Amino acid sequence: MEEVSPACPVCGGRVQPFLSGLYDDRFGYPGLYSISGCQDCGHRRLDAVFAADELTRQYSDFYPRSILNLESFKPYSEVRGLRAWFDGDRASAYTWVPKDVRVLDIGCGFGETLAYHKARGCDAHGVEADENILRVGERYGLNVIAGLFDPKRYEPESFDYVTLDQVIEHVTDPQDFLAGVASILKPGGVVILSTPNSHSANARLMGPKWINWHIPYHLQQFSKKSLRQLAKQNGLDVRSIRTMTNSAWMRYQWMHLWTRPGPGEKSAFWDSERSGKSVRRRYRRSGHWLWRAGEFQVATRLLDAFGMGDNYLCFLTKPR
């Protein structure tokens, strides 16, 4: 782990301590961490910088994808209609990509988005830090690379769309990263990204127990101002930034409050296969019935309407 810069990674402004004593309360990665915030653009960042091999180890050894069954793999399906709006299903970047385009999904997870795009006639490519993606790609014929995003692997100005679903908060250097994304985007092309909003109502209310600090995997926490500044510095125009949040996040937050483990422990909710514990029945049932009653959905839609939701959805375009 390297020494962190004293300046904001977006605007170069002055930073000061924001939160301390944070830890991986999902998968048990060791260590205590702190977050600093920029006084100029509102950007927040983890006070730690990891080498590439450390990042790969975090995702390959601690994220639970290695236990996923290939037989259960299922492409994402089209989301539309009132129910999709109510549940917040269109908070994900991939849902806004049209058919028959060339798209790169950076941080493609278990590959469900790639299979979704492929089925819709897209020339779909993916890159994922978790090496477990290779067994999925080989099994289902997906065009995917394991490792960190490197623009040198792609032809300049060769993609119509680049999607970053909950990805940009994971990168060490957001300036260098977005410059690389812009370089492979065609003139007139679109970057669609989603990322947590650490200025949300839930983040303020939950403090260190907010699920989207997601220590130590989330290295950056953006504000609207820092997103706009980052885009401008890398030659991209901001078409829109709004809060649009999947309603399930509120349900996850509820379950997280009742199951949060101590430092170095695996969560019975987030990592049930490896934690050795189970979520108490009363917590599962309460979360289930609140979801069925629509309580989480209504609360999420209201927070999004006032710009206080947990997730930003951002559209950036490359000038022609």
Describe the structure.
The longest helix has 12 residues, at 248-259. The model has no long low-confidence stretch (mean pLDDT 91). The strands form 2 sheets. Strands 6-5-4-7-8-11-10 form a 7-stranded mixed sheet, with helices on both faces. A 4-stranded antiparallel sheet has the order 1-2-3-9, with no helix packed on it. Helix 4 links the parallel strand 5 (123-128) and strand 6. The chain has 11 helices and 11 strands. Helix 8 packs antiparallel against helix 10 (281-292). With 320 residues, it is of the alpha/beta class. The relative contact order is 0.16. It starts with 14 loop residues before the first strand and ends with a strand.
Ends distance: 40 Å
Stated plainly, the CATH topology is called Rossmann fold
Number of helices: 11
Query: Briefly, what CATH class?
Result: Alpha Beta
In short:
With 320 residues, the protein is of the alpha/beta class. It has helices at residues 52-62, 81-87, 112-119, 133-140, 174-184, 201-206, 224-233, 248-259, 272-275, 281-292, 295-305; strands at residues 15-22, 33-38, 44-46, 102-106, 123-128, 144-146, 159-165, 185-196, 220-221, 237-243, 311-317.
